[in-house]
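Question (not urgent): is this output format expected?
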Amino acid sequence: MRVSVRVSLATVGMFSYLRERFTSRLRERSRRRARLVSKDGRCNIEFGNVEQSRFVFLIDIWTTILDLRWRYKMTIFISAFLGSWFLFGLLWYVVAYIHKDLPEFNPSINHTPCVENINGLTSAFLFSLETQVTIGYGFRCVTEQCATAIFLLIFQSILGVIINSFMCGAILAKISRSKNRAKTITFSKNAVISKRGGKLCLLIRVANLRKSLLIGSHIYGKLLRTTITPEGETIILDQVNIEFVVDAGNENLFFISPLTIYHIIDKNSPFFHMAAETLLQQDFELVVFLDGTVEATSATCQVRTSYIPEEVLWGYRFAPIVSKTKEGKYRVDFQNFSKTVAVETPHCAFCLYNEKEAKAKEKKGYDNPGFVLSEVNETSDTKM
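Got this back:
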């Protein structure tokens, strides 16, 4: 009997544990779906009921082609060449058919065709391919017999150059986009809140994985949250500026080694009224941006990431990452890049500043201008 009770209790405990894990996973997934900017910088947003036609994207066809995924771009690349070859192959076949150059018309020995050695649709397609890519095997060629063939040859040559220039340029521009350079800029997995220089700060670590620098780097942040105005209007994704600095400022960063950027949580900070106990109950998303110019290509790039309340650790700091070897070289250990260490930290910024003000008042003396010292005359005689 006792064994069955123990088994039933263990079963209930296991089911309750699985239910809690399942519920926590669902909450985590729902919060992830609510994230506007993913950890790798992609924006989770879609546009609906756009009044303008999708043909407006064809006006800026260059940007549209560049924004396509590689599989769609390669499909367009292959289709453009194969389609143009086959289309002009049909036109060459039509020219040979109208001029009666094909073998089924039994041309005479003295007959001069528009294009030599076109015997059918396959040979017309091969001639179209040779013409557009300028192979020139020398077996099939245009004669001076008909002007239509000469005009078609010129038109296909010009169109082939345009297709080659556009498609090859689009692929080259896609490869050299600064978005790919941004993938070698990485942010720490978590943000931390701890004291730095006697002030409560929110800290984030960022690193450049390449030895080439980003010129004119500038870093800043946006806090996204839902707010209600005094007029009762609900603003979703309301943006609040978050100033990030390093010890030398927030512009023209010397980005040769990983940097720890921080935001001072003062009375003007939106984090001022948050505490360690209420942080996870908040609903916000901190988006961090890093803008800079690629040294090799002089193209501007932007790197971004985001942090939700579960990814902000209160009472932690980042572990050291830069050390100096015996040979005098500086070594960066990326194993500790996102590693954090627990430190003693005030549980809220409000308490820290109140404590500072109290200590400052203890050190200072305050004079009361209304206080008057009065002397009291004491007599030794006592009347009974």
